[in-house]
Records
---
Amino acid sequence: MNQHTPRPDGGIAVPDKADLDAIAAGASKIGFDIVDVAGFLDDVEAHARGQVGALRTVTESASAIETANSAMRVAIDRVNRLSEETRLKMAGTAEALRASDRQNQQVAGWVSAVDNRMQAVVTQLDAVTRTNDQITSIARQVNLLAINAKIEAVRAGDDGRGFGVVADAIKQLSQETGAAAQSITGTVAGLEQVISVLCNEATEIASLARAVIENSAVTETALTELDDRVRDSAVTTAGMADAAGRVSDAVELFRPAFEGIAGAAQRTSGGVGDARDRVHGLIDQSEALVQRAVRIGGAGEDSHFIEALLGFSARVCEAFEDGIDSGAITEAALFDHRYDPIPGTDPPQLIAPFTAFTDRVLPPIQEEALRFDPRVVFCAAVDRNGYLPTHNRKFSQPQGSDPVWNTANCRNRRLFDDRVGLKAGRNQQPFLLQVYRRDMGGGSFKLMKDLSAPIRARGRHWGGLRFAYHA
């Protein structure tokens, strides 16, 4: 253990230089550990937020599933009702079709019978026509006989007068018979035409009736198949309704579990957030402890960085004062914190009224500081808002098409308003030593130290000079 220098009055011993160095080193070590824990808590909180979001999404999805499932059950019930109504209507339609088929068969039978009877009538009319033709022929023959008898009666004179009267009567009868036969022939011909038309129509009707019967059979077959399918659909929808019911029951079972998990994750996230905030407060306290230890004489590996930084920051302050004195820049322009976006930059770069001036005066100082120690990563001035106008040359490359490459190599004219950047720009103590985790990509982090000292011009606080180096 280090010895203490005793007080002349015999009071409490005053810690010597070694003790102060140990306090400074211990405070720095505590700061490292706290920053590491804070980074871990940041990661845990990020994961917890992601889990809370995922669980919220799952819970919302479960609600959506339940809502959709309820709607599906309503739709299935409606389909079942419609299917049953359709089946009943189809059953009635099929029965009506069967009755119509029976009636059509009766009509077809009646039409066939009428057709047969018409054919019999035609046959009888043919017989009548033949008989009438015979009567006509006989009438002509009788008429000829009457004419001959009349001639013979004339030749016989008075003796044949009575015979002549008979001959005249026979002639008249044959003529009337011929006229009647002629009239019958005309009537029969008319009947034959009407009956022929009726026969043709009866044949067509019979054909149509047979076609209707055939179509009815096809339709009945189709209706029977459709009825079977409707029944199958009813069975299927009943199964779907049962499955939907089981889904609803399952959702109801796991919803409370998800809600409980989500609530626990939310509480965990909130607790981690609170712990992180408290750890960030410890970071501030550890940084203040390091500064106090150094101010009262403690030293360590950071001492020569602090001394060098104070020298470089003094030179920056001097360059700013000289710029105002020489008219290279006005005080108003130096403290004008308007930032205009540079079009087409990704990540966005900005330009301020003083950027051209810092591009001229800062590189010589910052490049020299970069060469001060191999552990130095960068040296750059930032204003009170974290705006970094002029970086080291290796970080001031022209932007390309790859935003990832630009982020690593084009860090000038950028706004770094994170916790470390803002504290460095707004600190007005002689120096500020911060510890932070630098993201190296791929989930890898490296602890870095950020040492900063205030920059002033014309008695006004402009920002700070940052000195970042490996821990």
---
Amino acid sequence: GLYADGMYELSEKQARVFIQKYPDEKITPDVCVILLNSMLKQRKYGDVINSADRFIKRYPQKRSDFYRIKGDAQVKLGLFKEAIRTYSRLKGDDAYTKIGDAYYAMGDYKKAMEYFGKVKDDYAILSTGWCYYKLGDYENAYKTFSQVKDKKYTEEAEYMKGKCLLKIGRKDAEDTLLNFIKKYPETPYRGRIYLSLGEYFESKGNIDRAKNYYKKLLRLRPPFNHIGLTYLGILYYNEGKLDSAYAYLEKVPVTSQYFGNALYYMGLVKIKKGEKLDGITVLQQVIEDYPGLRDYAAFRIGEVFEGMGKTEDAIRYYLDVKGKERVKALLRAGDILMKTNPDSGLSIYRKALETGKDRDLALLKIGVALFKMKKYRDCVNHLNANIKKLRSPVYKARAYLLLGDASLKLKDYKNAVKYYNIAVSTKIKEVVPYGLEGLGWAYTGLKDYARAFKVLDRLQKEYPEFRGKGSLYLTLGDVAFAMGDYKRAEKSYKRVKGRQEPEAMFRLGKLYMNTGKYRKAAEVFLNLRKKYSVFEKSDLALYLASLSLRKAGDIYSSIAQVKSLIKSPIDKELKRKGTLLLADNYFDIAEYDSAIHYYEKNLDLYTKPDNGMLPAIKGILYSLKKKGRNLEDKGNDYIRRFKGTGIDDRVKFILGEILLNEGDYKRAEKYLKDSTAPEAQLLLADVYLKTGRDNEGLKILKTLQNTPSVSKEASLKLLSYYMDRKMYKEALPIAEKMGDEGVEYRVKALIGLKRFPDALKLAEGLKGCKGALYRGLSLLGLDDESGVAHIDSATTCDETAPEAIYEKSLYLYKKGKVKGIETELVKVRYLYPESEYYSPSMILLAKVFLKQGKKQEAVKVLEDVIKRKDKYEKEARSLLNNIH
């Protein structure tokens, strides 16, 4: 019942009670399945895995269900290998399908096909088609999708057949996809089809047909209409039709994910039209607001300044470029500098070459100078033109090595491989190891990790003492980690040996920490500490081990490790971190005396007032609060002790914060008033608002809107105040000033002002459940009952479910459609008791009960509302009095 109705939290609670009360009943194993599925729906994946393991042992007759659910949870956590082992416990087609899904999720499409091939149903066939498609084998993908017959999958299969034809370049691809739309007029793939066809014809140079398909996107909902506007703007820009380009680009909403691209090209349009300074201003906004485009914008600004003769500005922007454009930008910056400040060394080398003496060394040194000046292309050209003139085999080998290095800097990895191989083939001992190292770098650039590791194995075997530029395994690990390839990073760090092994172990531990594998992190750090006790980061490793254990929930082990750390002779900064961590651990296990002891030890490590003392002071005051002791006396001691240092101000803030949370507004006000910290003033506004002095509270918040460190928080509090009181006219300007962060409030304010068309237009740009909720409310405001479907989809998210249920129920109640409302509102009662929509939902539920003649039930829920003593108490009492 509860699970089928989507009430997963309530389903979980009742299942737990049943299992605990009736562990040996015949249906208990089935209840266990319901419990696991309820937790899975709530994304409690770790709990699912742990519970499944217990149930497998206790109720082996249901182990297939338990293994299946456990595997699903492991896949959700990205534990693919573990999931595959779990699914392997299943039997027959179920096992093969699940294992295939797991391999597909981890990107091993060949392995996935191997398992899907063992199953004969259409889901397996569809999945196999997807595997071929991901592997770029479009012919076989098309054939496989053609075999799908089950109606559940035929629409998707037919769509993918059209995509395959497009990838293959078949002439009938376009007709196939258009016929697909005719066959399935409501298909969700319409936008993707138009986009794919537009991109296809654009790649073929057929711009007019590309435009036609991009224009079709304009009739669709976001994001496809925004994509269409952006792509059309870019096409017209490339054609030099600047006015048309700008007309499309400026229509992309600011809230759209494609606005950054549109803004970038709007800047380029202005530059092409000769409005250079305006164009630069636009591109500077791109740099500030859109990190993914900052490098392209910075490079373009550099070009404009260079063309205007403002070389210093040009260099500044070129040097600010990172990513793909970096080499090109650096070369442009180098070109500018060469015109005004050529490297004196280069002049000397050229002069040496003219004398005719030591030509080999002079030629090589010119190449080195060009390389150091980052003129990598000139370096390659110079060496290629002169390498045959070199008589010395050693200099020739070094020249090929330098050619490899220069090619590497240019990211011309294929040529880098060629030059390094020639250097290695010379067999000159002082060159070969550097050549092998360079090959490793080049293969890394090509992402051919297998060859990179093979080369490095040879380097390590043949030249065990070689140090070069550092361990490439270490570098490969860093590269893989930066790319999000954590398995490759882990493998690379583990392969580092020799003097850099401790550094690799340290980075491996940090990798585990960053990916949430805290127990593994602790194990690595502790092994590092044991194996390399004199390593410069050994003490830090022990601290990180303690921190990892804490994050893993093993507080007692964390305490043991950090105690051993602070007893050893370590630097003062690490001792401060250690004592603070130890104190926090004791606080978390409610040993407040021990917590206070170590917080005070932390303070003793400071010889003069420092902001670093604040966490310990805060910990002491909170510990005293937990012990029921008078924290004000201690707080006032700190205020007197640190008077005039700035710390006294922060202590007042901390005291005010604690007292405010306790509901002691009068004493909280005293400390917050005395503190000049903007955060304290923010809390003081809360005190005023909670004690009926609204004008004073609002005055503070309006002032703080102009204080950068708390402006956002002040604006949000003002918004909350006005929205709670339905003062939508006052709320709307504040929300508008907040830009993207204020969009949701703008929509809610517009709905409150009954400006439903404006609200709906703005809500179209919102994603997820909130977008669905506000679109639904806007449509209902326009008396369009299609809004109910939007609101229904918002009930799937905990964040929006209470409001969605209440608003939908209220709308139906006003329409006289009472049937079914009771069931919806009960969900708020049991699943969301802490929601701000609890009380209004219960009042509405009472009204429904009264319409149904259920007076006792109505009285009960109204009494619940009254007990909460919130702003709905008065309304609940009034309704209750009417009943009596």
---
Amino acid sequence: VPPAKAATYEVTCSAPPELIFDDMTGRYIPDPFSFRVTVTNTGESAGRNLELSVRLHQRLTLEGGTNLRAIPSLAPGESITVEFFVRPVAKVVEALADLCASVVDENGNNADCCTELRVAAATTAFLDLGCSSSVDSLVADTQRGGYENAPFDVTVAVTNNGERLATNVTARLTAYGNNDLLVLPPIVQPVADQLASGESMTVSWQVNAVPLAIGGDRELRILVSGDDLPQTDCIVSVYVPAVGTPVLDCNVLFMPEALDDGVLHFDMDTGDFEGRRSPNGNYSVFDLRTVIYNVGDARANDVAVTVLPPDGVTLDEPNARKDATPGDIQIGASGEATFRFRPVRLPVDMMRAFRVQVSSRNATAVYCVDSILVQGADRVATLRIPGDQVGQYGDKLYVPVFISPTIAAKVQTYRINVQFDPDIVQFYGATNEGTLTQHGWNGPRHSMLGSGLVRIEDLTTGSPLATREEGVLVYLIFEAVYGSAEQEMNYAQSALSFIAVATVDGNTMLTTLNSFHDDKHGDIALNLEDGMVTVSGECIVPLQGGAGFALEQNQPNPFNPVTRISYTLAKDTRAKLTVYDALGREVRRLVDEPQAAGQYTVLFDASGLPSGTYIYKLETTHHAETKRMVLTR
């Protein structure tokens, strides 16, 4: 049996003969360098699954990757070269470094090689530090609450006493474990991008000191470092004397001075609390003034005041903390800070305690507390239907529902139940024309809850109703149905009564203000005053009087086509004089403007209108009256 053919290998290694160290750059040349290994198959059979590995001296290291490379196959006579990149390790002694490589295939056939190169000794940079301070001791200034010679300077001189260039040298100043010395930025400063051998550079910082109650030495530490260099440091010591201790005291005052009685009163005439107008809106605010006293033996620095508002008031400015004026308070002096508050209206009296914290950078925080009684203010309104409304069979009667001044109630919605005698009057509708709710409200809606019981409701689309005088909330329109045939020489009266609680099909319907639910009370308590309407038969002309208020019968009557209508106003008011046809449709508005108290006459020209009976109505804030006239052609 002849011998089997086998693969045999020859391995050669190549690398630079030596590495030179460059003092200027602090690096070897070249770095990294190329280590090349060539493997040749000198046998008669192909080599398979070869593994090439390298071994390096301790002064050398591979740059990235692994020291193993795989060669899948190598034919007889074929060669392959594999390149590795190697970096030298800097040391201060010279060395002869071996680089070796070996190859082995799947059958165990192997070969190896080695080469040698000289690695020059590396030089090094060595940083010497010289630290100093512009002062050895600070001088206390008790009036200012600080130090006369602060801030002071701290300086370090950095010298490269080594043999090579130092790069990216930086210095950092720290307070060395205490918070009494404050290094002003920048804390880290560049010394030099490159610091040559024998070269020096200097950097400085400014340092401030916190006023101390107890003096003593304080140390500052300077740390210097650079590329591939160990960190070095030096320490500077400064004596910081005591400057005394500020002691704070405070007092709380409520403004305006009317609050000195300890009560914040509610003014029902204005619908708001006493005080001054807020710059943020049309509402009242009061001021909480905090006075701060320094009763210590040093200035109080950076004094600030924080208020903790109680329930029942809201802060009328964005921040609950502000600096005192002045911010630094001298010995025996005072400062102050004022906050603006808006009280919250509640139905009962409530005592409100205000807690204020006064703090300073160099003093212990103190608290002061004071209280004020915020007067309760229940929301109350009165709804009233007058009892002097009169009419004749077939008339449309405009019955006002008056509401008391609402400045203290601020009405947003109303829901009212009114009961009447359906044999005397029938409900025709409701209107807000000429009323307090004419503008900015949706307009009244009504629903019949039963025979002789109607519910009327409306709500604002803008601001709440807030008036200083009584006025008409809504007009209820009734038609007189009593007085025909055998009743023509008689009269009858129907009570117009508010029904506080009505029940319809098991559902509760409340008469309320400021409630958005049929069965829930609003936040306004109600007083209800019922009224009455008197209706006469066709042959009796009703007369309605008012103190100084009168609507005269037109002259002439019947007329064609012009007639005069006279009326009297008892006081300045807004007057509206309107003409309607027999079906209640408006045909002409003769007057609709504010007028002074006095007597007025208006001409009505009916040209273009058909013959028939017309109704004219005079409406003011507190009165309404209608009369009939006849146009004949």
